[in-house]
Each structure stands twice: as C-alpha cells, then as structure tokens.
Amino acid sequence: ICHRTELYSSVPRTCLPIVYHPDYNITFMGLEKLHPFDAGKWGKVIHFLKEEQFIADGNIVEAREATEEDLLVVHTKRYLNRLKWSMVVATITEIPPLLLLPNFLVQRKVLRPLRTQTGGTIMAGKLAVDRGWAINVGGGFHHCSSDRGGGFCAYADITLAIKFLFERVEGMSRATIIDLDAHQGNGHERDFLDDRRVFIMDMYNRYIYPGDESAKRAIKRKVELDWGTEDSEYLQKVELHSEGALNEVRPDIIVYNAGTDILDGDPLGGLSISPQGIVKRDEIVFRAARRRGIPILMVTSGGYQKKTARIIADSILNLQQQGLIGAEALEGEGSSSLVTSMMCSSGSVGSRFTAV
C-alpha cells in the first residue's frame, strides 16, 4: 500500500506543467559561491520566462518539499540519517565550509532547497503523464542513488519520480531515461542496474567525474564523448541515439536530464557546445517524444556558468515556439485569469489556494 503523499495532489488545468518554488535557490551568506554552481540559476530561469511573458506567478505549479516518507520510497533510512551530519553534506555538495556549520542550518539552507526540487521532479512526473509534458526548473540529481550521494546531488529525484509513477499510475510499466548532462548519470544507473523496466541512454564526456564503471553496466545506450566535442557531431549523435533508443523500446514515460554543463567553457563539463546547440538539442529530444506521443519530463541538472539560466529559458521558449509545449495544455478550461492566478499551488481541491 502506498503512503499518503502531497506530491500527487491534483493541479488545476489552468496551470502550465512547469514546476518551481522560490525555495529552490540556495542563498547562504556567500558560501554557495564556493561551488562553481550558480546556486540561484533556477530563479533566474523563471525571471526570464516571466519577462518574455510565457509564464506568470499564477500559472505555474508550486513545488512541494519531499517528505521523509516520500524519500523512503527509494532512499535507505541509514542514508537519510547520514545527511544529519554536516560533514557528509559538505562532501556530497562539494562545499567544504558546510562542515563547520550546525546541521539545522545545513538542513534549512542547503538540504531543504534540494528536497523541494526533488518534490518538484516527483510532481512533474505525474504532470507529464496527465499533460503530455512537464518541466521541473530544478532537479536532475543524477549522481545520487538510494544509499549514496555525490557531485552536488543529495537526493535521487529521477529514481524517485520513476518509482512513484510505477507504484501509483496505472499502465506505467516502462521508463526511458535520456541523460544528456556532460557527466555520467551513475546515481539512477546504480538504482536501476537490475531493473528491466528502465531503459537508460547516457551521453557524457568519458574522461570526467564520476567514471563509475560498475554503474555503466546499466546503460543500454552508451555514448561516450571526447574532450571539446562540438555542435555538429554532438547534435548528430543526440538525434541518432534518442531516435534509436525510443525505437528500441517504447516507454510510457521519458525522463530527460537536460544538463547545460555541455556548454563551451564550462569548468567541469569539458565539451564545446554553443548556446544554440543546447536549444537545438532540447528540441530534438522533445520532438522525438512528442512525435511518438510519449509523455516527457524534463529536469535541468548540471550547468555551472552564470549564462546558463538564460540558455535554459531560451530553450523553453523555443520549445513553445516550435509547438512542442505550451497552451494546448490549457485548453478546455476557459476559466478567468483571476481563477488561474489563484490556483497553482497544487492543493487538492478545497485545500489552500495562494491568494492573488
């Protein structure tokens, strides 16, 4: 029997299936600047999408924090208990000064944002099935597995989203992960090593972290890239292999890990893809999914430069311009914009609505 969760509460049809919460952003007296990660990038993506008038406060879905019960669907109790040690969190997030801070601060300032993004990914899984597509503006913690974090990933949101779908949504029995972050997604690979229901395609720089050989056994379509791979070769491979993966097995859901650390100049990714190349890549994957009528959930994952947020926003706007996402999700409600702006904090009907 499934535990009771807030993450599958019904969401009004007036909301776009774009999931976000201001709590995603990590602000911590400047400590977050010690990691090459732009820890406010998620809020910046939303800011750009609002500026372009694609979204407004009221018509996106407000993420909820994953509870301990939610996390235990995948994580071991022992692993979650280890996160109560600042030293462990400092190691996982690669922010050494965290080990000097009391854990209640680490929980509030670092782990709660990551738990809220994880809740967002789980919510977006259900939304994708309901609407055909969904985007969590955060998430994509693909180095974390049930009992081990690393590489800034403390919770296994991709594994969780898929397990929730398998357990709670009828007819969900096959998932495909298309992982296009510059790094190998060894977390979900470890979790699904022996699970025939999950097909993993992973395309990554073969020379960088994590180089997890045993996890690679879970990859059904492995595309290893060399240093400095550029747009033309890269996009050709994305098209060939995402089409190939979806022709090989037709899943009930695609989880697309859309890391932007493939961008030229990324200090960790080591690839040389242009901003336009990233926008085109996302379009190729969405087109492959939409053409086959397979629901797709996108998470934003790694991307370690200040200009990353603008590129993610541009990519989402391009998906809309191409007709691959957007207002068709809003059809059939005909409700006033006032109602829209009141209703997107995904309460079950009759629960709290955020006032205008």
UniProtKB/TrEMBL annotation:
Main location: nucleus
Keyword vocabulary terms for this entry: Chromatin regulator, Hydrolase, Nucleus, Repressor, Transcription, Transcription regulation
EC number: 3.5.1.98
InterPro entries the record matches: HDAC_classIV, HDACs, His_deacetylse_dom, His_deacetylse_dom_sf, Ureohydrolase_dom_sf
Domain of life per record: Eukaryota
Any GO BP: epigenetic regulation of gene expression
Molecular function per GO: DNA-binding transcription factor binding; histone deacetylase activity, hydrolytic mechanism
Catalysed reaction equations from the record: N(6)-acetyl-L-lysyl-[histone] + H2O = L-lysyl-[histone] + acetate
Any one cellular-component term (Gene Ontology): histone deacetylase complex
Classification via CDD domains: HDAC_classIV
Subcellular locations according to the entry: Nucleus
Membership in a protein family: Belongs to the histone deacetylase family.
PANTHER family in the record: HISTONE DEACETYLASE 11, HISTONE DEACETYLASE HDAC1-RELATED
Subunit organization: Interacts with HDAC6.
Task of the protein: Responsible for the deacetylation of lysine residues on the N-terminal part of the core histones (H2A, H2B, H3 and H4). Histone deacetylation gives a tag for epigenetic repression and plays an important role in transcriptional regulation, cell cycle progression and developmental events. Histone deacetylases act via the formation of large multiprotein complexes.
Protein name, UniProt field: Histone deacetylase 11
Species assigned in the record: Dicentrarchus labrax
Gene giving rise to this polypeptide: hdac11
